[in-house]
Protein 1
Amino acid sequence: MRDFPLQRIAWFLCVWSCCTSLHAQARPGKLRPFPRSVLPLERDYLISAEADGSPLAAGSKINVRLSSGKQYDGLIVGDVQPGKDAGSFRSITFERQAGLPSKLQVSTMSLIQEGDRQFEVLSDPASKAWVLLDQQKRDKVAAERLSKKGRLLWTRPSAEDAAAAIEESKARFAKANELFPGSQFFLTETAYFLFYTDMPRNQVAGYIANLDAMYDQLCLMYGVPTGENIWYGKCPVLVFQDQSMFLRFEDAVMGYVPAGPVQGLHHGFSDGKVFVTVYRGDDPAFFAAVLVHETTHGFNHRFRSNSGLPNWVEEGIADFVAGAVVTASPETGVRQREAADRVRVSRSLGGAFFQPDSPLQRWQYGAASSLVSVLIQRDPNLFRAFLVAMKEGYTWEEALDLTYGLKPEELLQLYARAIGVPGVQP
Ligand SMILES: [Zn+2]
């Protein structure tokens, strides 16, 4: 891990305050698995299956991760059937070894590892074959672009650093016990989360299931291979039953006093660690949505690099995922409808909506998640590339152009068409 001073780089202060207008709404649909195909932006990072240094040379010893998360280690490459375009391939067979398959469908593969190098397996619809993307090559180009902006790619923490980060989170949880000695807190530890709360034990499982569903949904949206741990150790989530305890902890331990009504916060640190705090309040469905929304900010913080996303994308994704995962909460749909009603009258998104650092007003969250929905519905594969491009140092306008081939005005008109309002201004 690089030596990087510990400080906060972002407070994602969200204006989740209880909404009472819970009329029936269409919710944003959950994204289903889709084929990962290579995009024009990614062609520079491809490595020919026949090139020197290809992990598919006969006799290469490789690990193969499937899209399902299952992994086979130590496969030895036998025959590779080339595709019609140079460098592509159609099938791979492996030497016979006890307990290992001698053939795998390429369509089921997501990653190939050889030594410390990693290659993504992507479909190439043009040649109806498969291609390999050299992650090391991609990282080098992305790191150069990011360094010009004073940003960097996250590196995977060592096992020791990850374990130390988990202990650090537990020590921060313990501060809650010190502050509130009369309350009973307990820890639930899963593969990706540390969930610490004073809620009754029988209430916790459903909320953790929401966080797991959030994790799966974001991996799918961003192209993170199944089974990959994106966190620095694990993601710590501290949930209080009461607002007063949440506010006191924020002030005393996190050094923060929220300026307005806030039910949850994500703290993202410059060394890649995160910390999520939320209070439950008395609306379980709303709380579940806030929890997913804030933890999505944590995922965004950890994804690929420390380059931030523009606010409308950041909040739009957090609300989109909350709506997709927390089926009991109508909140995302309510906000989308409120934003559409407002835009129908004003014919405007408020003026500063698309400025990357412009804080969103409450009603603008609905427009932000609708824009994310519009982009995902148009092409989820392009949405993945749009996200990755921003995290690899392109501005959002450049990323939108390089992936969807759209200008911001054209995106705005797609939203305008989706809500049936012609001629909307930014
Ligand atoms: Zn937020």
Protein 2
Amino acid sequence: MLAELLARHEETARARLDGHSYDYIAGGGAEEISVREAAAAWRRIRLRPRVLRDVTEVDTSCEVAGIRVSAPVLVAPTAFHAIAHPDGEVETARGVAAAGGLMIVATRSNADLDAVVAALGSPWLFQVYVMRDRDITASLVERAARLGARALVLTGDAPVLSRRRHGHILPPLTEDQYLGNLRPLLKPGTRISWDTAQDPSITFETIGWLRELSGLPVYVKGVLRGDDAAACLDAGAAGVVVSNHGGRQLDRAVAAAVALPGVVAAVGGRGEVLVDGGIRSGIDILIALAMGARAVLVGRPVSWALASDGAAGVQQLLDALRDDLREAMALAGARAIADVDRSLVASG
Ligand SMILES: Cc1cc2nc3c(=O)[nH]c(=O)nc-3n(C[C@H](O)[C@H](O)[C@H](O)COP(=O)(O)O)c2cc1C
């Protein structure tokens, strides 16, 4: 059972990790109200399944960002995988590759991008934090484009980082570990904690800057409002990720499940809408797709799988999510992703 697998991964991870690292992954902003609400918001929505649809064969494959995927489930960008596994993002990538999954590699990766890309051996996306030093940001984005990233995912909801459990912002890492992927891009005189911190001055114009710099489609992650989604597309974005950053930024930001319909309506088919936050089952994925998302992202479950069982855990998790979606689709009378439409949702 998927729920048991998720619980086992998290329990094992909790036993293995030091308390600070565990809290960094599990926690969120302020009182963690948004963290607690995320999964519950998906569970409040009800379905209206179809019957007599011959679901002998159910196909979960589809296209996201122009990439054919075996299921619409992406690995969310999460920083600092070295806290969960000594090989960091390289180990995650091994698991993703084994499952035939699609990973959004984070700016704040501990492992060097070269090694992560080699371990993936398949298409990938790159998450961008625009740092105060735009030259370092530009070098990083150009490097990602050179190494074959198929799209950029600009995180828009973290102009500053929120303070988390025990007043921490970052997990326990040395400066060298913190830099990770950024190390080859530093210049003499770089003031690490200032220059590589997120630039709070980013605007919708940043979308065009990234597009020109990389020649890649840009998705904006962290969008919770229809007007913002429309503005992102007007500024040249290929799509948006409806997300409250797993409840890790502004606490009491609305749950993704609640924000999704408004964003889908505002986008009106002009771009792709992805969604994340509290996705823990095939039924959650089915509901997200029925509400108009093209795919979902999964964050913490991947971190727990990585800390618990390394690449094998990540593979097992992604396979289990795909199988769970297949079962949910069969029970809802959907043979293919194209059959998962708004009429399946009974309320919400
Ligand atoms: C440990 C951790 C680190 C994260 N780091 C980033 C990051 O560097 N950039 C980003 O855009 N989102 C980051 N996120 C947010 C995830 O991409 C995603 O939005 C969130 O985890 C989804 O919620 P879920 O964990 O309930 O699946 C992070 C999340 C976690 C748990």
